[in-house]
């Protein structure tokens, strides 16, 4: 039996032998065997012109990439969606004819999907990664999709490299590890050999890559789009979502522990906030550049690896997004929603950003395989709120029952309907931009500065943020097994900042660079989370109680914190009730077994007279871990002994007093600050 089994296995192995291919050392070809002369740039009309459909290599490469996963999204697989509405603050009529941006107070229904990029659908929420922030506006003129990320730049400049960056950062194909992480050889090999990625990597190594909450995360449209008004005048525009709760992050040790304690941490946080009525709010900001100023900056405004510094191009707040309803069914809504940067309305148009140009092809191609054919627009979550009529028919999952026998244009049998609509009556017309140039596979010289803006980002960071970036490089690049790749990364980022590269070079056993560093001295305060809004509202506090606590003071404190919009959970040794010294009881929400310090924004420890050694040990763990993660810690009554035992009494963000009003005031301020980095810098 065993011999026969081995024979069969060998036979199968022999059958497969003809399909095994080692690509290393070979020439690059298309799937038809045609040798490829250029794989870095799409075919465009001139160096800054639009991408041409003639580029068969780009289309073959992108089509294959878009169809690599069934049915999970290739990227942004792990997502969480919610409903809401967008309200306009001021009319944008001067810049765009988009109707949903015309009248102050006008509200438009939306659907938003947040996501991680790299991990599979079952991966954890708190990994170091870019986050998606995609918004579908259901406008009276059709659906408009603002497909954004929580970082304003991207790894690459040309969409033809998108399959390459994703292949590099995904789990390595020979063992499908590591999951949802860039801390491995192929990702950093890509970075070192595609140095346009420097700016995005700086953001990825920063605290922005581990957001505390989707509710505390910015969104950026990344690309340069156009606003076009009724007169046909165009302005360049970038889009920003700015959270009203400020932009806040986890610390890396905490993020890793949360991935094990609650892999659904960010989606749970968003779901529970909406269920409680703590509706997340974001303001929509735009940066606008006149056409005449297209070349007025020391960077190319069409380069998706560059930001427009707010000091040069101010951010104008024009509206508010409110998320106020969870989905009824995750698959039907969140998983089947189909976003596409090409879903626009009159008044919003495209530019020759080469990454955007490729995305305009890729997204539809992806939906065809993910959602089973050309009728994905008929799935309820994707259907526009306005009627739609055309001559498209049949295909997988068709739901519309079209009447009549005419399904072509031009025709006389149906009076040539449905017919095109003139732009004066709301028909979409592409902005008439003059395009000329030789058919080339090249990129403009204006795209070739890869290090000035990463240096701007570095200059803009606070000291704690810089420390975290150094630590992130040390961890991520330290996981790389190939010593040559490690050294290449060190040498590359020496071009950004010599101090940064030297610091992590020492940690990973690489040779510190002898020279390097960008000469850029400017900074942009808007890039630092240190300068974000800081509010205590909606923060989650773990309250550690045991029998015999001072009920009167604790109840007064909890009521006062609740008025500030702060949420609390009672934590004790056992489920059920915990009884105060006067006999009053409070309901226990969690025990030391069912929850963990990393799941709270702050810890308030009261203790009680009924403590045993195990309670003392468990409570001590909560407090010391929160302190290690620079979180606010409050202590009253019996709880103050933990603060004293651990020598925390005079530390920043530690509030220990029995004066009820003083405690509430100072603890609220400490919670609003988010983290107390002074402890880290000691």
From TrEMBL:
Q: Which family does it belong to?
A: Belongs to the catalase family. HPII subfamily.
Q: Which Pfam families match?
A: Catalase, Catalase-rel, Catalase_C
Record-linked SMART domains: Catalase
Gene3D superfamilies annotated for this entry? Answer: 1.20.1370.20, 3.40.50.880, Catalase core domain
The protein's name in its UniProt record: Catalase
InterPro entries assigned to the protein according to its UniProt record, in alphabetical order? Catalase, Catalase_AS, Catalase_clade2, Catalase_clade2_helical, Catalase_core, Catalase_haem_BS, Catalase_immune_responsive, Catalase_large_C
Q: Which GO terms describe its cellular component?
A: cytosol
Q: Which residues form the active site?
A: 76, 149
Indicate the secretion signal residues: none
Q: Which residue intervals define the domain Catalase core in the entry?
A: 29-417
| Enzyme Commission number, as recorded | 1.11.1.6
3'-histidyl-3-tyrosine (His-Tyr) cross-link site:
340-363
Q: What does this protein do?
A: Decomposes hydrogen peroxide into water and oxygen; serves to protect cells from the toxic effects of hydrogen peroxide.
SUPFAM superfamilies with a match to the protein in the record: Class I glutamine amidotransferase-like, Heme-dependent catalase-like
Keyword Transcription assigned to the entry: answer is no
Detail which positions bind heme: 73, 113, 162, 359, 363, 370
| Organism expressing this protein natively | Ornithinibacillus caprae
Q: Where is this region: Disordered?
A: 1-33
Keyword Iron assigned to the entry: answer is: yes
Q: Name one GO molecular function term.
A: heme binding
Q: Which reaction does it catalyse?
A: 2 H2O2 = O2 + 2 H2O
């Amino acid at each position: 039996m065993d011999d026969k089994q081995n024979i069969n296995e060998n036979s199968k192995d022999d059958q497969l032998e003809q399909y095994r291919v080692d690509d290393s050392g070979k020439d690059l070809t298309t799937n038809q065997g045609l040798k490829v002369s250029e794989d870095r740039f799409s075919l465009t009309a001139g160096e800054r012109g639009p991408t041409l459909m003639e580029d068969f290599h780009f289309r073959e490469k992108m089509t294959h990439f878009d169809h690599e996963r069934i049915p999970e999204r290739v990227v942004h697989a792990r997502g969480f969606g919610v409903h809401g509405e967008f309200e306009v603050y001021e009319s944008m009529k001067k810049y765009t004819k988009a109707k949903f941006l015309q009248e102050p107070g006008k509200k438009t229904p939306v659907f938003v999907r947040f996501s991680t990029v790299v991990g599979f659908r079952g991966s954890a929420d708190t990994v170091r990664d870019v986050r998606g922030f995609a918004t579908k506006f259901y406008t009276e003129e059709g659906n408009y999709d603002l497909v954004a990320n929580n970082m304003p730049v991207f790894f690459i400049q040309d969409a033809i490299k998108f399959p390459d960056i994703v292949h590099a950062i995904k789990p390595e194909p020979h063992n499908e590890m590591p999951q949802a992480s860039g801390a491995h050889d192929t990702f950093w090999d890509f970075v070192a050999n595609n140095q346009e990625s420097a700016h995005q990597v700086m953001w990825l190594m920063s605290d922005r890559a581990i957001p505390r909450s989707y509710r505390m995360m910015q969104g950026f449209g990344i690309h340069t789009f156009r606003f076009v008004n009724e007169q046909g005048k165009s302005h360049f525009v970038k889009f920003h979502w700015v959270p009203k709760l400020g932009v806040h992050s986890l610390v890396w040790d905490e993020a890793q522990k949360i991935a094990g304690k609650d892999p659904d941490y960010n989606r749970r946080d968003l779901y529970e906030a909406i269920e409680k009525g703590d509706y997340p709010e974001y303001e929509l900001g735009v940066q606008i550049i006149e056409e005449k100023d297209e070349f007025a900056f020391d960077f190319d405004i069409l380069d998706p690896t560059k930001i427009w510094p707010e000091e040069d191009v101010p951010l104008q707040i024009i509206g508010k997004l409110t998320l106020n309803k969870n989905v009824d069914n995750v698959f039907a809504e969140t998983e089947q929603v189909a976003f596409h940067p090409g879903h626009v309305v009159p008044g919003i148009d495209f530019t020759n950003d080469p990454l955007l140009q490729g995305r305009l092809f890729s997204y539809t191609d992806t939906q065809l395989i993910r959602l089973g054919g050309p009728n994905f627009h008929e799935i309820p979550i994707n259907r526009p709120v306005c009627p739609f009529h055309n001559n498209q028919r049949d295909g997988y999952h068709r739901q519309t029952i079209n009447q009549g026998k005419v399904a072509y244009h031009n025709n006389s049998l149906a009076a040539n309907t449905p017919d095109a609509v003139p732009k004066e009556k709301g028909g979409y017309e592409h902005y008439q931009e003059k395009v000329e140039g030789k058919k080339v596979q090249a990129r403009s010289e204006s795209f070739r500065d890869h290090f000035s803006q990463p240096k701007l980002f570095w200059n803009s960071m606070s000291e704690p943020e810089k420390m975290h970036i150094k630590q992130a490089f040390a961890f991520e690049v330290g996981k790389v097994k190939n010593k040559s790749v490690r050294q290449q990364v060190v040498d590359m980022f020496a071009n950004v900042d010599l101090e940064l590269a030297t610091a992590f070079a020492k940690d990973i056993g690489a040779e510190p660079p002898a020279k390097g560093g960008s000469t850029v001295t400017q900074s942009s305060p808007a890039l630092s989370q240190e300068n974000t809004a800081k509010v205590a509202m909606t923060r989650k506090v773990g309250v550690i109680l045991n029998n015999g606590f001072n009920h009167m003071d604790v109840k007064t404190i909890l009521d006062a914190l609740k008025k500030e919009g702060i949420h609390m959970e009672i934590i004790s040794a056992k489920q059920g009730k915990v009884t105060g010294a006067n006999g009053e009881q409070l309901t226990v929400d969690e025990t030391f077994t069912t929850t963990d310090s990393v799941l709270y924004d702050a810890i308030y420890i009261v203790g009680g007279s009924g403590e045993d050694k195990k309670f003392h040990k468990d409570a001590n763990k909560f407090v010391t871990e929160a302190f290690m993660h620079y979180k606010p810690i409050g202590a009253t009554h019996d709880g103050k002994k933990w603060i004293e035992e651990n020598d925390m009494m005079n530390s920043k963000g530690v509030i220990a007093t029995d004066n009820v009003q003083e405690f509430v005031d100072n603890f609220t301020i400490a919670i609003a600050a988010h983290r107390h980095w002074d402890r880290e810098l000691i």
